[in-house]
Amino acid sequence: MTVDARPERLRARLSGHVRQPLLRNGYALVLNSGATAVLGMAFWVVAARRFSVEEVGNGSALVAALSLLATIAQLNLATVLARFLPTAAKRTGRLLAGCCVATVSAALVVGVVFLAGARWWAPSLPLESHDLHVDALFVVALVVWCLFVLQEGALSGLRQSDWVLAKNTVYGVLKLAALLVPAIAVSSYGVFLAWTVPVVPVLAAVGVVMVAHLVPAHVARTAHLAQPLEPRQVVQFASLDYLVALVGTGLTSALPLVVLEASGPAAAAYFTLAWSISYSLYLVSRSMATSLLVEGAGDTARLDEYSWRAIVHITWILAPLVAGTVLAAPVLMRMFGAEYAAEGSTVLRLLALSALPSAVVVVYSAVERVRKRMLRLVLVTVTVNATALALGWVLLRSHGLPGLGLVWLATQSVTAAILLGTTLRPVWLPHLDGRAASRLVAVTSGVLAAARRRRQRRLLAREYPHLAATLGLDPRWRVRRVLTTVGDVVVAEVGDATPEAVLKLALTNSGSEALLRSCRALDSLSADPRLDGWALLPRTLAIGRTSDGRSAVLERHVAGRDGRDVIASAPGDAPVLAVLDHVGSLHRRTGRPAVMDARLQRVWVDEPVAALECWLAQASSAGATGDLRERLRDGLRNRALTLGWTHGDLAPGNVVFDAAGRRVVALVDWEHARADGLTVVDTVHFLLTVRMLGEDRELGDVVCDLLRRPGHGGVLGDPTLVLLAWLHHVGGIVTKTGRYSPGGYWAARNVHPVLRRLRSGT
Fold first, then answer.
1. Dihedral angle at the C-alpha atoms of 234, 239, 241, 246, nearest 10 degrees?
2. Contact yes or no for 134/127 (Cβ under 8 A)
3. How confident is the model at residue 713 (pLDDT cuts 50, 70, 90)?
4. Do 467 and 737 contact (CB within 8 A), yes or no?
């Protein structure tokens, strides 16, 4: 008899999720959203049965006004608490108290100002500004609601998301029960009172628990994570994030008011209930993003990893919920009444579909908050929401509620597509299959390369007369072909009927330095008596400068075939062995034995790792290379190695074969050559790039495979040497050109996957 192991595997998987803070807190917040949605729907179902459509419309508008004013008055300090409490340690109490005082003060001011001018900016709201009791009730409700929202951010920042679930569940039950209280049921403000009165006891009870237990425990638990908390830093973050909240959350809160003003109370009631159902789907992504914000703030080096996991788990949860909502929209709306189903089903479907692209936007917002790139977040939020509001107002008046829903879906979808192709690209690209990713960007890369060559050809056309005179070029020569390059150097074949020379023109200062390093290396190699008869060096014909001081070099053209074509098309390993034989001769002639001591570790490990760390810091990934440094230092300590002349960038593209593809005739591009290089790095790097070529994969994929399955024959079976060659390849790229960003495609396929694998312990 066999036992089905699936339940056990499911339990093990769930147990693993629960042990991960990102998912544990995220799921708690998602459950909170689900409970809030169910109880919220029940609230509106009961309200729709006990009150008229006009009373529901007016009550929902008051609730929307309260939410909108709370967005303004609480200064978005809930997000500030979620961002800074994880590392506040002993400053936790001071940060909480300061946020509470600021929120209460702002709520009082905002409430009074709003009521004073309600007849101008919200004339349709059922507020009687001459009745001081009603006015006072509204202001008190605003203050309490602001503190209620702020408390959720505090609990999330304290990593106590289960308390958020408990708190909102109790509140949802209490506000549902409040609808049944006779005094509330007969009041013209019954919906609003039932929504706000239950907040008071819940807020007070949870506040006592926080002060007595949760805050002291958090301070003791996170003392080792403490980071400097400067008031100026917090204020700057809060002010910019506040703009994001005003534009983003403020718009969602204002949508029922827009519908009320444009289409009347009945349309506002239909839209509000459809919006409340669809907004519960939005809360799934916002809940997981809050957990992402908290965990990412405590470990920025793993932010991309956390972001990807958040997107995956949001999608798994949301996809079936969205599908179910789209299919069951008429049934869901019919719970409120037949007229709600007739008028609100279409807009509910559109709003529900928008929850999927909106999840991408929400994750993006959390990423930018962790990285403190608030100006960029403000720009994106303002652009997206201003577009949605303008188009929504137009289509609402011309096509009714479905027009508003269509605009909302379209703006969220376009924004998500743009963000996935730009800022969030490093989050998802590393998780694609290497070949799929290569195909995905092949067309774009080809177009960009062609455009770059056209720009370079125009540049050469302008500079060529001056360069021809400076370098003494034959008057009959012209630029025949511009070659594709990686660095900040234009490379072109020049000549008359056939290519006679290769012209290299620096585009930047780093390009000039690379050209001059190559020339110095070639001079030293040519003068080294140990290399007599070793004839694979290109010949420098002339060195000059452009009119603005950039370097230009003319080299003798080497006739032959590109090593990439030969190695890719050869049936066996003969071309690879030929290259290794020639390079091995260079290493043997100039090599000397050495032991990896502290000085060599500093040169070959510490300094390149520090340079990589500096480059990664541009994308707030500082601290991501600690495992790499330790792995290399441990693996290389006291190892016997050979130092000698090395090419430094030995790859098939830098090898020239004869026309038959049998004999190596030249090695080109020596800017990374070293007289005291580690010879084994040349060999490993060449074999890695050969494997990349043969398997049509990125270097990061190849390296990750070798780290995951060590022990292959030869030098590629040594993970330490593979990592060292990878490090110096990556370092060569980032020092050769500023074209590659740590947040771009190249880094996503070649840098971040290797660092993640090291952090995972493999």
1. 150
2. yes
3. low
4. no
Are the C-beta atoms of residues 638 and 595 closer than 8 Å to each other?
yes
How far does Cα 93 stand from its chain's mean position? 31
The stretch 696-725 carries a mean pLDDT of: 83
CA distance 271 to 455: 53
User: In the structure, what pLDDT confidence band is assigned to residue 674 with cuts at 50, 70 and 90?
Assistant: very high
- What tokens does 692 get? 């990349």
- What is the C-alpha separation between 65 and 358, in angstroms, rounded? 23
> Which of 83-87, 138-142, 169-173 has the weakest average pLDDT?
83-87
On whether the CB atoms of residues 318 and 279 are closer than 8 A, the answer is no
- Greatest pairwise CA separation for the chain in angstroms: 104
Q: CA 99 to CA 399: how far, in whole Å?
A: 43
Cα(722)–Cα(139) distance, integer angstroms: 66
Cα end-to-end distance, the chain, whole Å? 38
Burial class, 637, CB count within 10 angstroms (exposed 0-12 / middle 13-18 / buried 19+)? middle
Who's near 4: CB < 8 A, 6+ residues apart? none
358 residue type, one letter: S
**What are residue 504's phi and psi, to 5 degrees?**
-120, 125
- Within 10 angstroms of residue 589's Cβ, the number of other Cβ atoms is 16
At 582-617, the pLDDT tens digits run 999 999 999 999 999 999 999 999 999 988 888 887
Are the C-beta atoms of residues 563 and 656 closer than 8 Å to each other?
yes
Other beta carbons within 10 Å of 740: 18
Cα–Cα distance between 160 and 115 in angstroms, integer?
36
Q: Are the C-beta atoms of residues 66 and 196 closer than 8 Å to each other?
A: yes
CA distance 195 to 174: 9
Q: What is the pLDDT of residue 758?
A: 85
d(C-alpha 555, C-alpha 543), whole Å: 9
With cut-offs at 50, 70 and 90, classify the pLDDT of residue 471. Answer: confident
Q: 170: burial class by Cβ within 10 Å (0-12, 13-18, 19+)?
A: middle
pLDDT digits (tens, 9 = 90+) for 89-107: 788 888 899 889 999 999 9
Strand 489-495, strand 674-678: pairing: unpaired
- 3-class DSSP state for residue 261? helix
Distance between CA atoms of 47 and 53, rounded to whole angstroms? 9
Count of C-beta atoms within a 10 Å radius of residue 517: 16
The encoded tokens of residue 416 equal: 């998500």
Q: Could you tell me the two tokens for 215?
A: 């805050």
Cα separation of 386 and 249, whole Å? 12
Domain architecture of the chain: domains with CATH: 20-432 (no CATH), 446-556 (3.30.200.20), 561-759 (3.90.1200)
Angle between the 626-636 and 752-759 helix axes, to the nearest 10 degrees?
70
Q: Tell me which residue of 580, 574, 717, 740 sits closest to 650, measured CA to CA.
A: 580
- Determine contact, residues 23/17, Cβ cutoff 8 Å: yes
Distance of alpha carbon 758 from the chain centroid: 20
Residue 279, token pair as written in the block: 């907004």
**Euclidean distance between CA atoms 747 and 731, whole angstroms:** 12
Strand, helix or coil at 612? helix
CA nearest to 478, candidates 459, 456, 501: 501
Rounded to whole angstroms, what are the CA distances from 83 to 158, 275, 626?
10, 28, 24
CB atoms within 10 A of CB 143: 20
Which residues in 555-585 are b (16+ Cβ under 10 Å) and which e?
Answer: bebbebbebbebbeeeeeeebbebbbebbee
